[in-house]
Design brief:
With 614 residues, this protein is of the alpha+beta class. It has 18 helices and 16 strands. Helix 2 packs parallel to helix 10 and helix 15 packs antiparallel against helix 16. Bound molecules: adenosine-5'-diphosphate and magnesium ion.
Length: 614
Amino acid sequence: SPQKDGSVIMELRGKELIRGEPDASSFPSGGIRATFEARGYTVWDITSPAFIYDNGDTKTLCIPTAFCGYNGEALDQKTPLLRSMEAISRQAVRICRLFGDNLTQRVTTSVGPEQEYFIVDRETYLKRKDLIFTGRTLFGAMPPKGQEMEDHYFGAIKERVSNYMKDLDIELWKLGIPAKTEHNEAAPAQHELAPIYNTTNVATDENMLVMNVMKKVALRHGLVCLLHEKPFAGVNGSGKHNNWSLTTDTGHNLLEPGRDPQKNRMFLLVLAAMMKAVDEHAGLLRMSAANPGNDHRLGANEAPPAIISMFLGDQLTAVVDHIIRGSDESVPSASIMRVGVSTLPFIRRDATDRNRTSPFAFTGNKFEFRMVPSSGCIADANTVLNTIAAEAFQAFADELEKAEDFEFALNALIRREMTAHQRIIFNGNGYTDEWVAEATRRGLPNLRSMVDAVPELVKPASIALFAHQGVFTEKELRARADVSFELYAKTINIEALTMIDMAGKDIVPAVAEYGGKLAWSANQAMQAGMDVSVQREMLARVNVLLRQTSDALADLRAKQEKMAALSGQEQARYAHDVICPAMEVLRAPVDHLEMIVDGRLWPMPTYGDLLFNV
Ligand code: ADP
Ligand code: MG
């Protein structure tokens, strides 16, 4: 700022930190903010620590902020998350009071998000337009070795990767993020990072930073970090495991079953509330994990299925069963495990085994929501979780506060609600077709794609729920549905254009060149009086596939142009129903060609180069 005496000072007032005023129209607002009414505000969120972001020569003071429009509409994901935390705290405190807890003033939801990612070599990455523009490969034949040996998870971490992980930990610790666990994941080149859990709000901000720092540090090591949900077809995709729990400000975790869950009435009430919440709003929970990339995981025969169900493990399921049947027979608790070697210690078995196929699993003292997309923001999932739990707590508190005989009413309510919502519990293998059939019989929704899931946001039940808990207004929900459809259509459009570019400019010319070489050498051989039947066969195969590629390319081009003329939900539906299948049709002959065309002519690195070259 220039001063009166002509000098200049660098100034920054505290006020400017508390409230900023960026342009709210340069941001997908779903029509809430038009260009001509652009005012929006950022407001300091004091519940999440400020930090200094070190970006080479610049150091930036970053202040976690909420972002809303001129009339207070939430434009961000933080505001609704904070609203949902207040909602659940209000209702959970009432539950505590029912059990004579008069100390608790606040109940906080905590999250520890496990983050999966892929690491590839940067030079190799830079030769793949699809990875650069879309974050995933749009073409690519399976290499001779994939993940069939199941040797990556327990395999040694490669030196280049462990150097990266070490550096990543240090950068995260500098930002105050307690990154703790680093390990290999199921697929080749796939890894995972888990931080120590924090409140849902802070954990969300930290996870956004984790993703950012992961990418930044990778570049330093000549690597690229891929956060896409499905970078490689036919290879395991990435997600986030959202470990969620509820703790009072006196330090009591409401999801802690204790030594004898059967007698822990408060825990059973909370469990009944979670069963009710997840069963009644399964579609909404599914929507909270929807993004275009996740469509390639959920419902596509990999972890986890698109159907929401809840895993409780043997012991708790038996407890729930006994309650429903009205039996007071006691359920055996966790046992000692003997391995049969005298020098190995006896270990206590966990009360629940792990079920990797379950989208929503109880894991001892928390629920693990496993559908969350690896590249997404976990605020959406936690906003929904907090809100649906708050709604169930509220219904229970309303009823039980009025009860004349609390014990009696409590037991009756737990039994009634567990019976009403037992269909949500499933402990079996979620990948099987039998489960899909069984879930349909149970009436559980199976929303296979993001386009199917978005309408859940604006169903009358969702609008009523969010309004009741003060988390979203109807206007905000409608805006979010619009933004989601738009995001979906734009993503698919970029993918289609990238395929068109790669096929038209790189693949077809390379295949044509190979065909030319084959023809030339066949001619030469024929003149020398040789048998050229092999060359002829190869040329014929290449020509057929080239024809198919060229036709599919023309078809995708035409459809992409058609999509450009549409908008909103209709455009998103078209992208899903018409463009995605057309992309598959183009991919098939190209992947086939990749296996037969001279490797020296193939215009880009293969899956083998990407997955096994770090
Ligand atoms: P897994 O065995 O599922 O791979 P990890 O140990 O990798 O588990 O990660 C578990 C995550 O759950 C960690 O981020 C951890 O901080 C978090 N977590 C542990 N206890 C709680 C809790 N009570 N509430 C929320 N998150 C928790
Ligand atoms: Mg996990």
